[in-house]
Fold these 4 entries.
Entry 1:
Amino acid sequence: MEKEKLSKSTSSKAMKKILFLLLAVFIGTFLVIEGFILYFAQKEPQEEPDVLIILGARLYGTIPSPALQHRLDRGAAYLKGHPNALVIVSGGLGRGEEMTEASAMKKDLMAQGIQEERIFVEENSYNTYENFLYSIQIMEDENLGLQKEDLLFGIVTNDFHIFRSTLTAKDFGINAVGLPAKTPPSIILKSYLREYLSVLKYLILDRPKIFR
């Protein structure tokens, strides 16, 4: 009887230690990752990119969501001020969308006065990893004639997403800086919290694919 009690007590203590360790790991990784997310969200580039990559986000049918519109407005403002810069718009067809995100993005940029010949369309991607995987194919297309090693790329996305997107770009061998766009106030908290999980997923599942 006493042996059973001792065994249960030992098991209980071991379980508490495991739970405490898991909690400590969670808190530690959360603080570190959120720290990087917040730091890069506020960091403005010191250099002027040659090519922008604007990452896709949700459409309402054919209309950019507020988050995507912020990205497009940030990209358009840069392109107007740098007439020699080119842009790749990247995003596939999502659920409930009536056209690819990239097609809608191109249409919006042209409506803002950006010449069609400056815009290149990547419309096969469904996440940040694929954004860069397929954008690289666009860059290396013989007709485009861009060598990523010789160019500086500006990654345009909402501020909470800058850390993961620039990390992904650099893992693909892209010399990149982030151009943070605003995040709509209604989704700020949700976006920053969810981004912690997205960074973990990238580090554990997606990043190893790049280095195979």
Entry 2:
Amino acid sequence: MHSLLLVLLLQAAPASPPPESPLRREVARLALAQVRQMDPDWQPEQRDCAGLVRFVFRGAYRVWRPERLATPLWRGTRGEPSHFADAETLLAHSFAPLGRDEAARESLRTGDLVAFRQERDAGPLFHLMLVVRPEDKAHAPARVVYHPGEKGAAVRTGLLPSLLTEAPLEWRPVPQNTAFLGFFRFKEWTR
């Protein structure tokens, strides 16, 4: 009887949070802090959408798992450890696709990415938006935080659900948008 009760209690107990939870909270804190005022430690020449991702992830690891920074967080174009990776390289080697549909959007957690690829005369332009979502989804909708890429531009934020209907068509994260690559998660957080 006691063992059955113990099994039932363990099944009813909330699952322990994933080990990356403190990292995700720190990613959210750092990303939203850049909206208010960009950190002077974030090098101006690296201020673009991928630079924001690199900056807040490194900052989160510096606080919660500094030993992980003994090797670079990112993978380069050949899959080698690298301190730098542009948006295309981050998506190809350091982040895993989650999908492009509503189910993937509903599964998003802080630190996940919304990714786009626009075709331009000068070649493809990749753009990343960092997801910030409360751990309890009932408290607030997911946000995106991003740097628009222009030199001197401020970091911006908005509600993820608003992108679905209010953003210009080429920036809507919906399956019908061919420029929308999908949602992505840091590979180390998928294990």
Entry 3:
Amino acid sequence: MAELDLVNRDPNNINDHVKVAFEDVLAEPDGAQSIDCIWRCSYNCFQCSKGCCYNVMSILCAIPLAFVWGWSFAVIAFYHVWTVAPFLKCFMINCGCCQKFYGTCIQCYLGPICETYGLFFSNIVVKNA
């Protein structure tokens, strides 16, 4: 089992779309800027409220949700291992049998008919006058 990386918690960049910084949400264009201390206070308020809210929700919900998602993915894995994969293998075996049967019928019945029609129509000569 690999060790848990407490620094890089999204090594596969699954949640890149959720990275939200103050600069991504709030921006004051030239000519419409507040006082510097208000801008700093807004930044600190944004960072603090975002961090506190996320931490409180994580404390309350992370463990139960991790349990639910672990259970859900275990059920999906079990379903695929014990139901989907065997059914797919059975289906592929039966399709192979049907493919041989269908191919044999085509070669034995339809093949000679098409060959006969091909020879018949290949002897037609069209002359433009």
Entry 4:
Amino acid sequence: MPTRLDEMDRKILAELQDDAEQSLDEIARKVGSSKTPVWNRIKRMKEAGVILRTTALLDPDALGLEACFFVLIRTSEHEADWQRRFLQTLRERPEVLEAHRLAGDIDYILKVRVKNARAYDQFYQALIAQVKIHNVTALLSMEEIKSVTALPL
């Protein structure tokens, strides 16, 4: 069940999504409040699980991770043991930035960040060595048009 948020909570969340390194004084000024109530609201939203964690966003190109692949996976395996091994494998692979189970013809989609096509092939070979997969299709992103972390409030 979603947590009830008022307009002030949403303003605070928007500021945190824009720049979580802002001081409480800065956030309070921007949302029209004072420091202590803002701090209390942030604390409450952390306790409620609205704010999961604070992290740094890194530039993949600056780190040499220039290739982004979307990997479409079809499997003929649907047993609990296979799924457990598959999910564990995905969690252990740092190249996998996102993984989603889908409805429809494709069972899973992965977002994989690597240096180049050779690094993707190494990832692919390791993946299929660990779990049986019926079909894998890799799509190379030619251009990132939009990528945001801020959720719509």
